[in-house]
Amino acid sequence: MDCLKCYSRGCSITGSKEEDLRWQAIESAHKLDVYDYLEEIPVATTVSELVEVRFKNTRKEFYKNATGVVLHSGDVVAVEADHGHDIGIVSLTGELVREQLKKANLKEETFLKIYRKARPADIMKWKEAILMEFPTMIKTRQIASKLNLNMKVGDVEYQGDKSKVYFYYIADERVDFRELIKILKSEFKVTIRMVQIGARQEAARIGGIGPCGRELCCATWLSDFVSVTTTSARRQELSLNPQKLAGQCSKLKCCINYEVDTYVDAQKKFPKHYNQLETETGTLFYLKSDILKGVLWYSTDPQAAVNMISFTVDEVKEMLDLNRKGIKPPVLPAEKPQATRSTTDVEFVVSQDSLTRFDKGKPRNDRKKKRNFHKPKS
Fold this sequence. Notes:
Layout: H1 2-8, H2 17-22, E1 50-54, E2 60-64, E3 76-80, E4 85-92, H3 96-104, E5 112-117, H4 120-131, H5 133-146, E6 152-158, E7 164-170, H6 178-188, E8 191-196, H7 199-206, H8 217-220, H9 230-235, H10 242-245, H11 260-267, E9 276-279, E10 282-290, E11 295-299, E12 309-312, H12 313-324, H13 344-352
Parallel strand pairs: 2-5, 7-8
Antiparallel strand pairs: 1-2, 1-4, 3-4, 3-5, 6-7, 9-10, 10-11, 11-12
Helix pairs in contact: 5-6
């Protein structure tokens, strides 16, 4: 049963050694999981009218508990579907489900019903359906390649009763897959449903670990995908390197938008034009800035970081006001401390161990004196 719960979060169920090699566990994390902080609070009734049910990866639906079955998080249930029935796992119950409905802006009248808790026969049939997903995906890719369709089948999900299959595909342009559906129906003898997803949705379904060392936001908690542009990166003065800014979906990382509002608010204190400062010693050219600290660095050379001088935002505003009046302030590099890097931490780390400490041989122990063996006199 634990393996079935893991499957709903993105893993595959393995039955034999061959299946273990075929099915690689994608992730065992809670995908789009919701922490029920009201779980330990006693309520008047133990029967939840509305229940959230999780299926494979990030697909979740809301259902009505019409039969009045007592359900808890983790229970495997048989639910109503458009064609037949499906098997899922209860992910959320209680009053918090209504809060999720308000967030998703859904109405209760449109929900399907929960039939019952899953029986052993239902679970066995569900497991058989899961084991068919990977071979079905490989076969579909081969058929699509023969038909010269410009599409990629990223994932396949069987319904719990094996009467319906969801094919999740990615395509840059509109694809005419009518011939593909005819072949798939004759090949698998099931109802076919093609679902087009984007690169971000594919990354959310597959999951993975980001460069920050944590699981992908789209696979754990992020449900709304907001467009990310290079303007957000420029606001934060990030390096416009596609290899660093792109995520596993080959799109700009969603986390670029997390702190952009903070940087926009901090930049409101900056003057509009601060590229050059006129002083008695010459022109200073803007080099870089620390937006959150409110510090700007200038250089005497517009093409290189030479004689770097740091100023606060207030100092830059004061110098710009003087420049507008035609006054060049007497700011010299000797009077203004240059931006130097603190080497305290570096020296402390280096002083702990030497980089060549392993190249030296072991010290000889001179305490032991050599024994002198003399031949006996004749």
